[in-house]
Amino acid sequence: MYIVCGEHLDSAIDEFVEVYETSPDLYLLDKIKFTDWNSPKTCDFCEHIPIYLVV
Question: What is the pLDDT of residue 23?
């Protein structure tokens, strides 16, 4: 699972495919909610605000 900004979306997809050998599902963080999980405040690759959940 990756939480990323728009700039690092391609990197997250590439890493996901390399590790799991399948394409990920993509979600916009502002469109989803989980009861027991809050998204991180920064991208997994930099300090920008995350936009996407890659799972």
Answer: 96
Tens digit of pLDDT for each residue in 30-53? 998 888 888 899 999 999 999 999
Q: Which helix (H) or strand (E) holds 52?
A: strand 52-54
- Token pair of 3 as six digits: 């939480």
- Burial class for 15, CB neighbours closer than 10 Å (0-12, 13-18, 19+): middle
| DSSP state for residue 34 in the 8-state scheme | B
Structure tokens of 6? 């728009």
Could you tell me which residues are beta bridge partners of residue 53?
3, 27
Residue 50 to residues 21, 22, 46: CA-CA distances in angstroms?
A: 24, 22, 9
